[in-house]
């Protein structure tokens, strides 16, 4: 017989679990409210969600650094705090996009908001653990919620998007599981710190190399899918096109942050162990991703699709930083996404407000470039703001993404990868072309259709969001310093 | 006091130019011409006073107005020096300018751009004054370029004339001729600049005195280099072979311009430069000898072309060219003061000749072909006298100025023992006499070949004729001041004395030259006094055609330089810039764009393909991992 | 070979080979058959056999869960779905060309086999959560599950909740018509900003 | 004696069979079957490793993989249902409006 | 006025922001007023500038990202002072002469933003801030070319943007590497130029860094063979765009060489003298010939810009005070002269809506004032003494003669071929009979055009005759820089090539 197990409540360190519990509780509250009263306006749920997330954010910030909780399953290190903060902030800024003036199917479901909160919780679990099981479960929770959110947009394209995302996600899940199995087989453990320990002792066994590589490669495949790295990115353009702009903006930032955290934990460990081929592989994939996604973005006719490719390329850019595995590089990952988030928020919000409920611009696309032709003449302020976001994405200083880029490039230079910095630079040039294409359409062409406005979907909350994104994009230079030092402190404190 | 005079002499033309420019776009106003002439006269008075001052004191007056360029170790001031050489030039320039200004009041009477003309003309005088007065090479270069641009403006004064074919008008058009002149001069200017650079980096200064003082310390090759470079500059301005074609084409400008710029002053700037820089040329005998040889060659070469030319002004232009050759011959042989003397004397009679030609043109309604003239002496006697006198001077007939100056040059050639040069110069003197009088006879003697219905020749205004008289007087008497002039300028320039040997032969030499000159005149008289008898056979002969077409040199330049240049330019633009350089750039962009198109095919939209891609990725990575593991 | 035969005649060996053979065959049918019913039946059978693996490996609890969850729940879901989709008849698919698929599948099999064939097993590895002698697997698992893995367990619950909500709302009637693609009902929301919407 | 590798190889083979299914299937329902095959294959591996290391983590993992598979089925079928309602087909070849 | 530089940088930007609320019809006056105030501010800067001080003045330093070593760090010295003045002046004159009819307000706002970025580039002493303004300047220019340009405007604008952007990103990598090197040697992050100056790098590092910076600057200059964006940009841009582009934007490249490449990498710069000189000479001769082949007046001037920038490049790499100082001066003179020439072409384009030389002929008779001003700018362009064009060109050539007489002669051919294409342009358009009926009644310069061109004429003459007030501060700063480079250089070859002016030596 087994001894009875005594667990003191203190040793569980329940506080580490609090943020996720808050999000889950919030979701449940929303479900309950829905049970009691039907037909409440979406604004209620949006605000509830925001409130819950704010509390969540507060509890994350209140966490102590480098603690483990709940039988060491939960790991609260700097990286998880930073990423949780980013995830929650991202969620807070994106969810109000639901408050568009037009009614969209998904927002009529209170469940949408519940799922949203569950998804946030899932991401939080994913980043706040070094246990592959919890990571996997958190990932799947979030992914399943996300698939549903996409499908809820309820039109043909969004189903297609959901199906594509889901199916590939299922395949990726298979690879993740297989990779984990292989790592487990090698180390007898599914906790990353332990894996590192054991693998460190086994790294010398040459016969094992193939299995070690294989294990990491399989996990890389699944994370590459999540991060939309070449050639596992194929879902991204279609899903981005099919999902609603509000969600796409979110998807291109938050899930990626979560996936990057896992990638940092897994591959950072691998690279620290001196498994150079992993670094090489990641570099190759990263370079391929940023380059090929960029050149594919060149030929897109639709802005949203272009932004999809561009976010693939941005992911490649950041992935390259991951391969460097220095504190600066890891800092730059979060800095980049923090800065990218605001610009992306703005860009997708602009697409979102220009979204017509039913009528598409042409048979194929919602947001083809032609739609924005002569934007400056139709709506000067909108055009200027959108132009700003495009320039920021292109990496024109002093807008936010520039600082992310420069930091990533600096990290590459510092790590001795000057060629990588050059590749990044040249890729930024290619990227500048398609961002400019939109700018050109907006500023330099005449309107194609006789429309007075394409602010189909604008509302005051959206204006506030866009205003916020604009300020954050423009004023990046003023908050870079605290942001960098905070992230750097957090990252270095957690030893990455 | 003297400083003020220097400034007056220098700036009066500038004031005149600016004053005229104020009316540049308004109606013709006679007072503009009058005031310009008065200001020029002021300049002349100031120059003359200075000349007297320098003559009496024997000391140069140097003034420094202000710094111009100062950078690094380079320091260039606006500094002026009035010494024996520059004051001679100043007086000559301001005198002739004054006369030409007055002349122009009459000559440009009917031109609607009357005011503009005076503005340009005075601007030219100002530039010329800067050129001669500057105390450093950079200042000289200012004037050098200034006269160039004024010459450009003035040659192209009648810019509205259309381009013609080379057969109809050898100079094509005034604007074409102007550009040609400017560009050719620029080629030479580059040489000049290089000369400046050589001097600067070896001496550290561009001041004349500093440079000349440093000459003994410099290597011979540096000196040679500087001398060659400076002389290239002089070749352009003084239209020496092979940069000579612009001068005859420059005759497209109004005749007073030809008189002032292309006869008396600007074209002599090259000679002036050699004289000014005599300490440099004195220590570079090879270069100097080359100068002399080239000068002699040009003298002969130009005279040969003048023999058959039918254009009144071009003949005079060739003669100018030829006389410049004489001057260079003298300067090259070390007889700087003789060169200067000939320069001054030549200025007088050549200006007179041109102004006379201007009168003829005025009378003939701008007809220039001497074959279409004849018998003009009946209607324009004073002009006939002036031109006859000037031609006699040019031919070097005693006791006119030309005799003294040219004879001295020929003697110098003999004295230096360069007999080939001497022979050529003597022959040239004969040719000079021939073509001068060919022109005089064809113009003024014989039958009236012009169309009486259309042309009613008439004499120039009185005041113009009076204004020309100082030139005529000077052309006659200048020779007698040779001795005085020598003592005056040789206090600055090296003295040049004929050797005993030459002294011995001096009468003989003079006689030979005079013989050739008189022979030339006689030949012309026999052939042309009666009228024009055209000799078809002669006119169709190779030599005649060669000479009439200026040895085909302009055509050669066009075919060998202008056209290939235009062609290469075109090739560079279309062939290289657009096709190679730009296309490479665009090619990269297109390549990327096209590879985007290729790559997007991966994105078929079919989930099954996506899954396949994913599997491909995974398998490739696994294979790579396996291979790496097996190798490593 | 002898080794193979020797192992074949142990219980574990025999069961292993039998199950292996059968699962491979059954799953092969699952992926290759054009008939949904066959595919599903073979999938279900294969899953039962996999629970057999679990039993051999002493993971009794897992075996039971496998049977209940997969064979019970999942297959039931699939059956309902199959009926919903009216997919009982032969499915006509233009399957991806065999060469590509089998090259990829074969290569991946080869690679995975190569990787797993490496001497992965190491005696030196200390079990973090060892099984206890004489204690039932279910009890062992229960203890670990409700201590160490309590959080993942709860998250899994959350995941199932998410799946449930997702299933319910996606399959619900409300999805039959799209609010997004309906133009009415919108008027009144922030009219000032959208006045020029449509002409 | 049956070693760990035996099980792992079987797992690998089953995984590859699942992969082949995923790759060749055009019918979504059938494709989902193949993904189940893959996850089951992984579970064998986990159970086997768990057994040979005498460690429960593997069984835990397998347990959660089963849970995940079940959830995926629920969500996947939900999506399939709305898709089917809209398109009347589950064939992937009909599902390629977004491309490029 | 410690913060005059910040005021100079941000005043136009703030004015541009406020400009959004200005009424359309008043925008022009607003623009002129703002630009005039800015210009007077810059004049004030000049008056308060201590010409005898060779170092940086009016320095402002505010840490922005201290962890990363990025500071808001501004300052001027003799080299940048006058480029700033020229920037503000050309902007003012550009706005005064603005002939755009559509969207004038947008144009004014864009121009004011552009002015901010341009001034910013020249006052920045921090690499990142420099880069920031450098890149930002592309955006308004993109808009100006693209929105108001000719038929190929979008192509031209995008080409301009991307080409420059590509170069500058490579430069950025160089900057980052420089910062990294600084950090690894000193342990502190810094992008401040003055800090970088103190860094003595091994030659191999210098070579690579020089190459990185070279690409960034060379594309901007634009050096052969990176110049092909320029003819398009100029050809398609509206007048104001060409004016600003030629006058100021191109100078950023050459300024970058003076400010970054030379003092940071003296040894590499010396090694690079020959290749750069060769490229510069190709630039000078080749583009001058291409200019001759052009049919479009504006293209002639565009290519001539490239040719003149070749002279500037050559001077910078003369490594002596004459050459570098001459280059700086030539930047000013080219800015003013080519700016004026572009304005002049704009004048005729406004009237006839064509820039083809064939379409004209005999304009001098119809538009005498115009012809006079064109003529003055023409002679300034071909470098006639007593115009602004001569001083720089002369100094550059005399400076480079010390490096290589042969190359100087080759480069000096620019005075010949320069006059070839300029005179041929002038002849084709202005001389000859008036052949086209449309040209007979062209209006001469109106008041607006006259008043924007006359100041330029005045400056062309004034600085041609009396460049001392400008040359002296430049001289000081350049001498100090050379002195510094000489001390910093590590190889003997570099020490031999870098010529410290004798006067500085004596002063020591």
In brief:
Chain C is mainly alpha-helical and about 200 residues long. Chain C contains seven helices and no strands. Helix content of chain C is about 65%, strand content about 0%.
How does this structure look, described?
The complex is a heteropentamer of chains A (496), B (632), C (199), D (100) and E (508). Helix content of chain A is 72%, strand content 1%. By secondary structure, chain A is mostly helical. Chain A has one domain. The model of chain A has no long low-confidence stretch (mean pLDDT 90). Chain B is 73% helix and 3% strand. In chain B, β1 and β2 form a beta hairpin. Chain D has a single domain (4-94), classed as Helix Hairpins (Orthogonal Bundle), CATH 1.10.287. Chains in contact: A-B, A-C, A-D, A-E, B-C, B-D, B-E, C-D. At the C-D interface, α1, α2, α3, α4 and α5 of C face α1, α2 and α3 of D.
Helix content of chain A: over 70%
The value of Rg of chain E in angstroms is 22 Å
Instruction: Compute the number of helices of chain E.
Output: 24
**DSSP summary, beta strand count of chain E:** 2
String of helices and strands of chain E: HHEEHHHHHHHHHHHHHHHHHHHHHH
- Note the quaternary state here: heteropentamer
Based on secondary structure, the structural category of chain E is mainly alpha
Instruction: Compute the average pLDDT of chain A.
Output: 90
- With strands numbered from the N-terminus, the spatial order across the biggest sheet of chain E is 1-2
Strand content of chain A: under 5%
Domains counted in the coordinates of chain A: how many?
A: 1
Indicate the low-confidence ranges of chain A by residue numbers: none
**Main interface: chain pair and counts:** C-D, 91 and 73 residues
**Uncertain ranges of chain E:** none
Core attributes:
heteropentamer, A: 496 residues, mainly alpha, C: 199 residues, Four Helix Bundle (Hemerythrin (Met), subunit A)
Helix/strand layout:
The complex is a heteropentamer of chains A (496), B (632), C (199), D (100) and E (508).
Chain B: H1 2-22, H2 30-57, E1 61-71, E2 74-82, H3 84-107, H4 114-133, H5 137-155, H6 174-203, H7 208-214, H8 220-237, H9 245-249, H10 255-264, H11 269-276, H12 278-282, H13 285-308, H14 312-332, H15 336-363, H16 381-395, H17 401-415, H18 419-444, H19 462-477, H20 482-489, H21 500-528, H22 536-540, H23 542-548, H24 553-599, H25 607-631
Antiparallel strand pairs in B: 1-2
Chain C: H1 2-8, H2 11-32, H3 36-56, H4 60-85, H5 98-117, H6 137-146, H7 150-171
Chain D: H1 4-24, H2 28-53, H3 57-87
Helix pairs in contact in D: 1-2, 2-3
């Amino acid at each position: 017989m087994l001894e009875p197990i005594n667990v003191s409540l203190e040793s569980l360190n329940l506080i580490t679990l609090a943020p996720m519990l808050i999000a889950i509780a919030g979701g449940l509250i929303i479900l309950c409210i829905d049970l009691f009263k039907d037909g409440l306006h979406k604004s209620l749920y949006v605000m509830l969600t925001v409130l819950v997330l704010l509390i969540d954010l507060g509890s994350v910030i209140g966490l102590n650094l480098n603690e483990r909780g709940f039988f060491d399953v939960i790991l609260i290190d700097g990286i998880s705090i930073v990423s949780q903060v980013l995830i929650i902030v991202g969620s807070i800024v994106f969810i109000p996009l639901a408050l568009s003036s037009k009614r969209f199917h998904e927002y009529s479901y209170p469940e949408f908001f519940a799922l949203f909160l569950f998804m946030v919780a899932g991401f939080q679990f994913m980043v706040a653990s070094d246990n592959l099981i919890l990571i996997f479960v958190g990932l799947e929770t979030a992914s399943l919620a996300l698939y549903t959110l996409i499908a809820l947009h309820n039109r043909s394209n969004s189903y297609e998007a959901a199906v594509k995302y889901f199916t590939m996600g299922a395949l990726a899940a298979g690879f993740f599981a297989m990779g984990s199995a292989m790592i487990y087989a090698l180390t007898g453990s599914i906790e990353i710190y332990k894996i590192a320990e054991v693998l460190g002792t086994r790294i010398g066994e040459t016969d094992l190399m193939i299995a070690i590589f294989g294990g990491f490669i399989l996990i890389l495949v699944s994370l590459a899918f999540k991060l939309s790295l070449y050639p596992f990115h194929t879902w991204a353009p279609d899903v981005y096109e099919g999902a609603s702009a509000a969600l796409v903006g979110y998807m291109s930032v938050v899930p990626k942050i979560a996936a990057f955290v896992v990638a940092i934990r897994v591959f950072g460990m691998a690279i620290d162990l001196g498994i150079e081929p992993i670094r090489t592989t990641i570099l190759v994939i990263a370079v391929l991703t940023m380059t090929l996604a960029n050149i594919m973005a060149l030929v897109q006719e639709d802005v949203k699709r272009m932004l999809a490719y561009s976010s693939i390329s941005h992911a490649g850019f950041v992935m390259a930083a991951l391969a460097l595995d220095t504190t600066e590089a890891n800092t730059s990952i979060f800095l980049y996404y923090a800065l990218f988030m605001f610009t992306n928020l703005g860009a997708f919000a602009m697409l979102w407000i220009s979204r017509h409920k039913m009528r598409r611009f042409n048979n194929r696309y919602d947001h083809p470039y032609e739609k924005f032709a002569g934007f400056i003449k139709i709506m000067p302020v909108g055009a200027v703001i959108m132009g700003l976001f495009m320039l920021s994405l292109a990496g024109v200083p002093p807008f936010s993404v520039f600082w992310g880029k420069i930091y990533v490039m600096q990290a590459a230079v510092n790590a001795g990868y000057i060629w990588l910095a050059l590749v990044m630079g040249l890729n930024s040039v290619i990227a500048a072309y398609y961002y400019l294409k939109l700018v050109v359409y907006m500023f330099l062409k005449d309107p194609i259709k006789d429309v007075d406005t394409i602010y189909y979907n604008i509302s005051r909350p959206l204006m506030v969001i866009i205003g916020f994104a604009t300020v954050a994009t423009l004023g990046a230079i003023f908050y870079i310093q605290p942001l960098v030092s905070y992230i750097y402190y957090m990252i270095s404190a957690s030893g990455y | 006091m003297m400083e003020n005079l220097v400034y007056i002499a220098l700036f009066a033309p500038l004031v005149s130019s600016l004053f005229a420019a104020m009316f540049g776009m308004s109606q013709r106003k006679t007072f503009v011409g009058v005031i310009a002439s008065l200001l020029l006269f002021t300049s002349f008075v100031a120059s003359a006073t200075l000349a007297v001052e320098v003559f009496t004191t024997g000391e140069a007056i140097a003034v420094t107005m202000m710094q111009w360029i100062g950078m690094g170790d380079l320091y260039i001031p606006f500094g002026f020096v009035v010494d024996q050489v520059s004051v001679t030039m100043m007086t000559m320039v301001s005198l002739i300018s004054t006369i030409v200004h007055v002349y122009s009041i009459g000559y440009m009477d009917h031109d609607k751009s009357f005011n503009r003309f005076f503005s340009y003309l005075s601007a030219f005088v100002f530039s010329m004054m800067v050129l001669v007065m500057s105390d450093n090479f950079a200042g000289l270069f200012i004037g050098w370029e200034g006269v160039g641009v004024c010459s450009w403006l003035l040659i192209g004064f009648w810019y509205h004339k259309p381009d013609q074919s080379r057969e109809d008008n050898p100079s094509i058009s005034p604007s074409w001729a102007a550009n040609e002149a400017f560009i050719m001069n620029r080629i030479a200017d580059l040489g000049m600049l290089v000369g400046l650079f050589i001097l600067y980096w070896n001496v550290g200064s561009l001041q004349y005195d500093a440079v000349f003082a440093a000459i003994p310390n410099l290597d011979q090759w540096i000196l040679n280099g500087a001398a060659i470079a400076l002389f290239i500059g002089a070749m352009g301005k003084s239209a020496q072979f092979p940069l000579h074609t612009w001068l005859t084409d420059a005759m497209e400008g109004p005749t007073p311009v030809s008189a002032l710029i292309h006869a008396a002053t600007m074209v002599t700037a090259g000679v002036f430069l050699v004289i000014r820089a005599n300490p440099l040329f004195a220590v570079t005998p090879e270069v100097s000898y080359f100068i002399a040889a080239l000068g002699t060659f040009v003298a002969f070469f130009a005279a040969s072309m003048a023999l058959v030319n039918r254009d009144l002004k071009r003949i005079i232009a060739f003669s100018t060219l030829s006389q410049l050759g004489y001057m260079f011959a003298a300067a090259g042989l070390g007889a700087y003061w003789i060169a200067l003397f000939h320069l001054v004397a030549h200025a007088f009679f050549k200006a007179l000749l041109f102004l006379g030609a201007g009168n003829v043109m005025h009378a003939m309604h701008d007809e220039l072909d001497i074959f279409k003239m004849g018998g003009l002496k009946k209607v324009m006697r004073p002009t006939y006298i002036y031109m006859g006198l000037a031609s006699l001077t040019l031919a070097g007939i005693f006791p006119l100025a030309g005799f003294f100056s040219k004879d001295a040059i020929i003697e110098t050639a003999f004295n230096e023992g360069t007999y080939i040069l001497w022979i050529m110069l003597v022959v040239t003197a004969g040719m000079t006499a021939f073509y001068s009088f060919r022109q005089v006879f064809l113009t003024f003697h014989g039958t009236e070949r012009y169309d009486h219905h259309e042309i009613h020749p008439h004499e120039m205004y009185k005041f113009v004729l009076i204004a020309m008289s100082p030139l005529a007087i000077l052309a006659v008497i200048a020779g007698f001041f040779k001795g005085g002039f020598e003592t005056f300028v040789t206090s600055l320039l090296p003295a040049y004395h004929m050797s005993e040997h030459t002294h011995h032969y001096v009468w003989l030499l003079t006689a030979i030259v005079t013989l050739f000159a008189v022979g030339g005149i006689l030949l012309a008289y026999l052939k042309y006094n009666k009228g024009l008898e055209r000799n078809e056979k002669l006119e169709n002969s190779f030599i005649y055609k060669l000479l009439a077409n200026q040895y085909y040199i302009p055509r050669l330049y066009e075919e060998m330089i202008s056209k290939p240049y235009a062609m290469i330019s075109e090739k560079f633009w279309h062939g290289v810039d657009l096709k190679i350089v730009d296309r490479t750039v665009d090619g990269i962009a297109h390549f990327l764009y096209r590879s985007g198109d290729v790559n997007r095919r991966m994105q078929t939209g079919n989930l099954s393909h996506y899954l396949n891609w994913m599997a491909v990725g995974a398998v490739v990575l696994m294979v790579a991992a396996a291979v790496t593991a097996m190798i490593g | 070979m002898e080794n193979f035969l020797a192992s074949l005649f142990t219980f574990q060996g025999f069961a292993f080979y039998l199950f292996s053979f059968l699962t491979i065959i059954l799953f092969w049918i699952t992926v290759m058959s054009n008939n949904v019913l066959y595919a599903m039946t073979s999938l279900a059978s294969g899953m039962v056999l996999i629970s057999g693996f679990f039993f051999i490996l002493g993971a009794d609890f897992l075996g039971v869960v496998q049977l209940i969850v997969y064979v019970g729940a999942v297959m039931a879901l699939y059956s309902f779905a199959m009926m919903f989709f009216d997919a009982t008849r032969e499915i006509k698919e233009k399957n991806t060309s065999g060469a590509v698929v089998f090259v990829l599948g074969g290569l991946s099999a080869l690679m995975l086999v190569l990787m797993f064939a490496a001497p992965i097993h190491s005696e030196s590895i200390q079990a973090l959560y060892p099984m206890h002698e004489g204690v039932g697997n279910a009890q062992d698992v229960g203890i670990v599950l409700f201590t160490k893995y309590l959080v993942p367990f709860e998250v899994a619950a959350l995941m199932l909740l998410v799946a449930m909500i997702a299933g319910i709302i996606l399959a619900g009637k409300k999805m039959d018509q799209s609010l997004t693609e309906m133009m009415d009902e919108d008027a009144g929301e922030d009219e000032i900003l959208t006045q020029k919407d449509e002409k | 004696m049956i070693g760990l590798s035996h099980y792992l190889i079987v797992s690998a083979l089953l995984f590859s069979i699942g992969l082949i299914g995923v790759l060749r299937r055009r019918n979504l329902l059938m494709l989902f079957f193949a993904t189940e095959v893959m996850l089951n294959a992984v579970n064998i591996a986990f159970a086997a490793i768990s057994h040979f290391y005498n460690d429960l983590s593997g069984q835990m993992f397998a347990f959660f993989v089963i849970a995940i598979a079940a959830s995926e089925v629920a969500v996947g079928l939900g999506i399939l249902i709305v898709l089917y309602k809209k398109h009347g087909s589950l064939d992937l070849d009909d599902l390629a409006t977004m491309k490029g | 006025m410690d913060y005059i530089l910040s005021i100079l940088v941000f005043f136009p930007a703030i004015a541009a922001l406020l400009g959004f609320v200005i009424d359309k019809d008043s925008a022009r006056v607003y623009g002129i007023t703002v630009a005039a105030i800015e210009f007077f501010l810059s004049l004030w800067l000049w008056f308060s500038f201590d010409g005898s001080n060779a170092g940086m003045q009016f320095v402002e330093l505010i840490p922005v990202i201290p962890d990363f070593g990025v500071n808001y760090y501004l300052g001027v010295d003799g080299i940048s002072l006058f480029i700033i003045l020229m920037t503000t002046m050309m902007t003012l004159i550009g706005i005064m002469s603005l002939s755009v009819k559509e969207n004038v307000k947008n144009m004014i706002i864009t121009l004011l933003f552009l002015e901010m970025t341009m001034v910013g580039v020249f006052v920045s002493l921090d690499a990142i801030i420099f880069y920031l303004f450098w890149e930002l300047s592309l955006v308004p220019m993109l808009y100006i070319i693209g929105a108001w340009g000719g038929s190929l405007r979008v192509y031209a604008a995008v080409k301009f943007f991307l080409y420059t952007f590509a170069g500058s990103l490579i430069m950025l990598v160089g900057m980052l590497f420089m910062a990294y090197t600084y950090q690894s040697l000193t342990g502190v992050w810094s992008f401040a130029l003055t800090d970088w100056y103190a860094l003595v790098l091994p030659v191999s590092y210098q070579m690579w860094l020089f190459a990185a910076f070279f690409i960034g600057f060379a594309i901007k200059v634009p050096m052969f063979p990176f110049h092909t964006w320029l003819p398009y940009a100029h050809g398609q841009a509206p007048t104001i765009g060409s004016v600003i582009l030629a006058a100021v934007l191109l100078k950023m490249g050459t300024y970058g060489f003076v400010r970054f490449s030379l003092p940071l990498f003296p040894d590499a710069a010396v090694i690079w003298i020959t290749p750069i000189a060769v490229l510069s000479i190709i630039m000078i001769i080749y583009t001058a010939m291409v200019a001759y082949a052009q049919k479009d007046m504006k293209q002639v001037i565009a290519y001539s810009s490239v040719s003149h920038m070749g002279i500037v490049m050559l001077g910078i790499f003369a490594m002596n005070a004459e050459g570098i100082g001459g280059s700086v001066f030539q930047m000013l003179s080219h800015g003013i002269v080519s700016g004026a020439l572009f304005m002049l072409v704009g004048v005729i384009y406004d009237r006839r809506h064509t820039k083809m030389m064939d379409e004209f002929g005999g304009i001098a008779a119809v538009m005498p004032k115009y012809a006079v001003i064109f003529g003055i700018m023409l002679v300034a362009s071909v470098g006639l003494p007593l115009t602004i064009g001569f001083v720089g060109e002369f100094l550059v050539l005399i400076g480079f003669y010390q490096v290589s007489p042969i190359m100087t002669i080759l480069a000096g051919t620019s005075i010949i071929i320069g006059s070839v294409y300029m005179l041929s342009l002038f002849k084709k358009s202005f001389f000859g009979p008036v052949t086209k009926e449309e040209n007979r009644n062209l209006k001469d310069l109106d008041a607006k055009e006259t008043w924007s061109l006359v100041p330029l004429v005045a400056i062309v003459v004034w600085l041609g005759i009396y460049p001392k007030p400008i040359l002296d501060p430049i001289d000081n700063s350049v001498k100090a820089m050379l002195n510094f480079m000489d001390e910093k250089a590590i190889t003997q070859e570099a020490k031999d090539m870098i010529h410290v002016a004798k006067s500085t030596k004596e002063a020591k």
